[in-house]
Design goal:
GO biological process, one term: proteolysis
Largest sheet: 8 strands, mixed
Organism: Aliidiomarina soli
Bound molecules: ligand LTJ4LZQ7
Keywords: Acetylation, Hydrolase, Protease, Serine protease, Signal
Shape: globular
Number of helices: 10
Helix content: 10-25%
Oligomer: single chain
Distance between the termini: 17 Å
InterPro entries: 6-blade_b-propeller_TolB-like (IPR011042), AB_hydrolase_fold (IPR029058), Pept_S9_AS (IPR002471), Peptidase_S9_cat (IPR001375), Peptidase_S9B_N (IPR002469), WD40 (IPR011659)
Protein name: Acyl-peptide hydrolase
Strand content: 35-45%
Strand order of the largest sheet: 31-32-34-33-35-36-37-38
Length: about 650
Amino acid sequence: AESEVNPLQYDDVFALELAADPQVHANGNHVVFVRRSMDRQTDRMVGRLWQVATDGSNLRPLTSGEGNESSPRWSPDFERLAYVSDQSGSQQIHIRWQDSGHTSLVSTLPFSPGSLSWSPDGEWFAFTMFTPESRQAPVQLPGKPAGAEWAEAPTYIDSVQYRRDGAGYSPQGNSHLYVMPVEGGTPRQLTEGDYDVRGTISWSHDGEAIYYSANKNENPVAEPVNSDIYRVEVDSAEVQRITNTNGPASEPKVSPGGRQIAFVGYQDRQLAHQANRLYVMNTDGSEIRNLTEDLDRSVSSFEWARDGRGIYFSYDDEGEGHLALHTLRGVAETLTDGVGGLSYSRPYTGGQFSVADNGKLVFTQMASNRPAELAFLEGSQTRPITQLNRDFLSAFSVGEVEEFWLESSVDDTRIQGWIMYPPGFDESKQYPMILEIHGGPHAAYGPVFAMELQLMAAQGYVVVYTNPRGSTSYGEDFANLIHHNYPSNDYDDLMDAVDLVVSRGFVDEEELFIMGGSGGGVLTSWSIAHTDRFAAAMVVNPVINWISFTLTADMYPYFSQYWFPGLPWDNVEHYMEYSPISHVGKVNTPVLLFTGESDHRTPISETEQYYQALKLRGVESAMVRVPGASHALHLRPSNLMAKPAYAVYWFDRFRANGGESN
Ligand SMILES: CSCC[C@H](NC=O)C(=O)N[C@@H](CO)C(=O)O
């Protein structure tokens, strides 16, 4: 009955928890993971190390719980656990001895360590770390008098990648590979040069070398995705190139027996979406084999089976994460679906897993009514391990999610989508509806918990979301239907989804709303230039003008060469034809904009262009600027609640009764 409905409140963003980065013990009996929860005082998500038996018993914290903890990594003998914590005031490496429970800080690093990895003998750590380039400013000015307050000195920049979304303006320098004794000591730098060591690093079986991936091309601007795998000798720091592929070769992982390396990458065809394939080669780079050539899905992550006979890997298919095993001599066998749940703001796919002996696995399990929990997979049996959100679930009514498929009105393409019903939904009533559009554009939504959408459903809105053409998890051809052609018929797919839901009879056609973030902001602003059916729109961190975007976004070498037929000044007509700003003259729908002021992916200047154009045209519009927020608007819980709250405020204004029945 409706009286029992207890919808989520905005403040419940602080109740969310999720289980991430599982690291299962080889015996498969227990797993260490990062328990992420929301801290009301700091307005941040914090991670703490917890352990639980894989039968779900004995859930307990592993540390005293001060600081933000991440990256738990077992020592090769499983007697110690390394992790990164900022307990000391900066991100440092810590060790926990499993027998005594004693923990100790073992590093004093100047910058945060990444890709932490134990040597096979358990005596060394390898990790990546930012390494500043010490350079004098090219202009030397007379110094200021003692005690004077002068303006900050100007910054001289000549690097390609001078700012990154989420990190801001970067000091000059690169991420390099280091080793350090596990009992502490001075880190020794193994790589140097004008390139970054990124992603997985993997020790050779004898511990004498480390494999890593980097883009060392002379002109990385011209080849932004073309990385290769290298081997560096730990003693001499001598470097050997292992692959020479046309495209990325990354995440090298040496096989348990030490004779082979698995990695991911693809043959670069300069397409907007290119699925990551799983490759195996000998450690000298010979006999490269593409294991997933026939899969036509992107490999998200992978781990060697402990006996070295195969590789477990995850991939998304039709909006859902799957785990599969590819034996080296055979074919891939899918083991389970339901992998995901790490995205908690919008229903994006994405999960993690960890491999024990004998085919036992732990993975983050997705569900539409809660964020990621851990689950155990043994043989074909899956069972839940954690229930971190049980308290949250039992107290509130969460909107139910129903899948639908439709056939495109422009061709025979099949499109998948989902309807989220407001708690207490009664199909005999008429509801306002929000179409919420994902970004990427090469990304995918799925039946995954999404707090932003839930909070809007809690306010009485039916929320519809789809994977229009261009989305991932349906194969490369589907994703590339918008190659050099975005936005285009993806708009039709979205409208087909609205038509389908309207035809069900429970949506008030006068109360249709549209919103989307990033690529979803592109499609929202595009849609309202092509139809007046929506009563109001919310355009979140959009691209409005592809020329200004490619020349201000952090990933400009990639966007300008992979998403367009050529550089902007040679293709002005193409860039402008696909830019929402070119069509703003047709917009009549009231628009609310919402963007982070520190967004370097889709800079706020895009939002400002649109806002000012709408004002020039006299279209009802407003702009919400989120101080300090990057492209990942949801990272601060207060912003996670602000976005749906502003959406509901704006949409309610344009409902027949001003939203008074909510
Ligand atoms: C349409 S411009 C690209 C923005 C961005 N794509 C890659 O970074 C994007 O759309 N991001 C999505 C997630 O992939 C988002 O929702 O922020």
